[in-house]
Amino acid sequence: MDPILRIEHVSKTYTGHQALDDVSMEIPRGSIYGLLGPNGAGKTTLIRVVNRMTIPDCGKVWFEDHEITPDDIYQIGYMPEERGLYKKMKVGEQAVFFARMRGMGRFEAIDKLRKWFDRLGIIEWWDKKVEDLSKGMAQKVQFIATVVHEPKLLIFDEPFSGFDPINANLLKQEILGLRDRGATVIFSTHNMESVEEICDDITLINKSHNILSGSVEEIRRKAGGNTFLVIYNGTQEQFNSAVSGKANLLGDPEGLIGGYTQQKIHIASDDDVRSVIGSLNDNVALRSFQEIIPSMNDIFIRAVNGTL
Amino acid sequence: MNKIGLIVEREFTERVRKKSFIITTLLTPLFMIAMMVAPGFMMMKGGSSTKNVMVIDNTTDQFVGKQLTSGKTVEFKLLGEGTTVGQARTQYSNADIAYGILVIGSDVLDNPQNIQFILNDASSMSVEENIQNQIQGILRTERLSRYDIENIDQILADANIRVNGLQTLKNNGQEDESGMEETSTVASWAMGLILGMLLYFILIVYGQQVLQSVIDEKQTRVLDVMVTSCTPFELMMGKILGIALVAALQIVIWAVLVIGASAFVMPMIMGNSGMDAMTATASAASDPEVVGIMSKLTNVGYLAGLFLELLLYIVGGFLFYASMYAAIGSAVDTPQDAAQFNGIIMMPVIVAIIVMMNVMNDPNSDMVFWCSMIPFTSPIVMMARIPFGIPTWQVIVSLVVLYISFLLMTWLAGRIFRVGVFMHGKKPTWKDLGAWIKMK
Fold it and tell me: Which of A134, A242, B136, B159 lies 20 to 30 angstroms, CA to CA, from B93?
């Protein structure tokens, strides 16, 4: 599928500090794309480059089929990590103002906003001032202000911070819904659980470099490196003879309730997986054979530490 | 352009609806009226309590002490001959009984410095002045009488001429005097001063609001959201123009309230005696100059003629300075950090105020001329110069320079703004600002 956004060899140096160094990536249309990285890795700078808030020193950003222009910002909705709302302004008026700033007409904006407010259960706050809202509610307002003009590309910086699990889930469903209706979502986060749950693809940035890119599934599988967890009923000798020559044992076997034993193994070649399962099945009472896929959290830490 | 309009609308409505706007808009005229009414009231109530001054006069026959006349503010009590200072000081040490003790030396006629005033209470300029003037008069008369000239009082009165104000006319090149415009130096100056001060006030109060507004948005990170929907330049202009509109509205309301109040409300609350007292204050000065100012300030045609020119200066001056304030606001994180840059902005404004005060001496001196051309000072200085009737070309050149500088300044400010709004943390140096301007 053609990418909605393409970042080509972007570099940016602030006085004496390189924020981005030759970063490239492609965001597939209609995907949810995770932009990961430790604090200060350059994520925010990259987002600003995409938003045209910062002009890169070199490199290009392509939006759809052309180099990004000022008019394209209408097609981008951006929710910064540090939420920005006018504290003294009434919630509804404020949302209308932002919607109009992004090119919507007043009445269209009011109409759509009221629907959104209704949906996220904050319609009764329409006439309240932002300073009277809780953090979570202010965030919902910010979320609505970001998506109401139905941009093609949405950029969320840490969208779930400050939400309780119920509201985080509500927001997650909304983000998935937006993708299903055709929007592309980039989101920048440290929360790896949410990455596993909703991201299709990711890029991991560390120290201003792109160190890891690809689909979440593929990355996790690769990082797993053909490690499997086997649960069986039988003697250790039977087990060892079944896998010998094709797999290495990782660690010691562990006894489980009900006479079962659990053992981690590593199979060097993909081709051997089937035959290992076959011979195990013949030699022991095989209960479970499962690939160990590392969590994004592990991958993140390993990648940043350079041990992936 | 559409975006700027939206931002202007938001800035304007948000500010105008604020309680603080409504309060200051209503209270300031009250304060101004109070300032106008106060002298009248003071005159009616006769000021503060009478002060008792004990007088020890060591001159022959106590001729000075005997001639001192008590008035509303000072009550003189001449102590008997031979009273020593020490005695008086112990006897009259209570401030309630005696405000002070005046000691007049025996040789005061030849050595007028030999007067002491021992105070039990805080000193008072007006009391001291009263005493000085009285003694001066007494000594003067006494000295004159030494010469023994007949009709000396009449001669002196006759010789004491005052020329109060020239009839100043503007030469229009015609032979006869018809159609020559009457000008008044003092009237022009007073008017320019008032307008210059008004602009100064606008710069300080509303310029600061621009600064504050940018810092606030930067702190709340609204800027991050805003600049993804408009250019920093649009944002900056929207803010400046929105606040300019608020300023315009507030000043119009004040003008209406003050004029309305002085025409209708004041006579009512003051009653006739109060108004008489005020009129008395005005005519006490009794200069034809004052009358000139009054007539000039009420001459609608003259005001309307000046209005357009002055308006152009007020608008241009405000925009010029406001864009500097916006740039500074964008570069710093807190109002404290802004203080240093603020001081630099204020310097030309203060220079302009000082020059403006000097315009009366010579509205065409080199310094005044150049200061009315340089955009940093021209709006304020021109306020004072224009009422004197200066060549039109100077006004045009100065305005052109001002507006070109305004465009240049907004461009520069816009460049700083566009970088500054994303900079958090360290307070930038002048060098940083320069680098931001050059940044592509």
Answer: B136
